[in-house]
Amino acid sequence: MQDLSPSQSQALALAALLQSAQLVDQIAVTGKAQPEAFNPLLQSLFAFDSEHPAAIYGGVYGVEPGLKLLITALAGSTNGSYRSVIRYALAMIHLEGKLSKDADQLKIIANRLQHIHFNSEHFTNDINTISTSVAAVYKDTISTYKSRIHVSGNAIHLQSSDNADKIRALLLAGIRAAVLWRQMGGKRWHFLTSRRRLLQAAQSLINPQ
Predict the structure, then answer these.
(1) Among residues of the chain, what percentage have pLDDT more than 70?
(2) What are the structural domains, with CATH classification, of the chain?
(3) HEC-encoded secondary structure of the chain
(4) Per-residue pLDDT tens for 54-82?
(5) Which segments does the entry list as coiled coil (predicted)?
(6) Mean pLDDT of the chain, nearest integer
């Protein structure tokens, strides 16, 4: 697993966050999400002791869709087409800030994710079953906060229990990415002051020299 610079680690975390938000939007609007983009995010919730940030997602390629979106966003090329994605990402960062100060909820989430991981290793690793279990964790903990993420989309897709579970699982994965962003030294004001640095870091991850 390649060693990343601090800027690359921050870009990787932001890419995972945006990838989570983009998949939330895709499921809400179309009812679909690519497994190759969804699975690394879900599995990141069980990366309890990863030595390298990229290992959390099974390698940089696990967040490649998010890196491409991050590059587009930092280059100012979205033209408002990703408004919902950015809104979800900012909301997840906000919720992570609340969660980071809530030791009781953090302990509950960690314990339940470890239990889900144990079951997935010894009983079933069906992705839908895991998503349902992770969604229950989100619903019982973060959904109890007054600040909630309101997902908009096609009512038919949003009313599907499978889609609702995947969306909640992705929101938790996005908050996990926001944790990594903070751990890697990421600050909110970096979005204004460090765009060029983060853009170069994201580009170097997509096209390593």
Answers:
(1) 94
(2) 6-206 (1.10.3890.10)
(3) CCCCCHHHHHHHHHHHHHHHHHHHHHHHHHCCCCHHHHHHHHHHCCCCCCCCHHHHHCCHHHHHHHHHHHHHHHCCCCCCCCHHHHHHHHHHHHHHHHHCCCHHHHHHHHHHHHHHHHHHHHCCCCHHHHHHHHHHHHHHCHHHCCCCCCCCCCHHHHCCHHHHHHHHHHHHHHHHHHHHHHHCCCCCCHHHHCHHHHHHHHHHHHCCC
(4) 999 999 999 999 999 999 988 876 666 68
(5) none
(6) 91
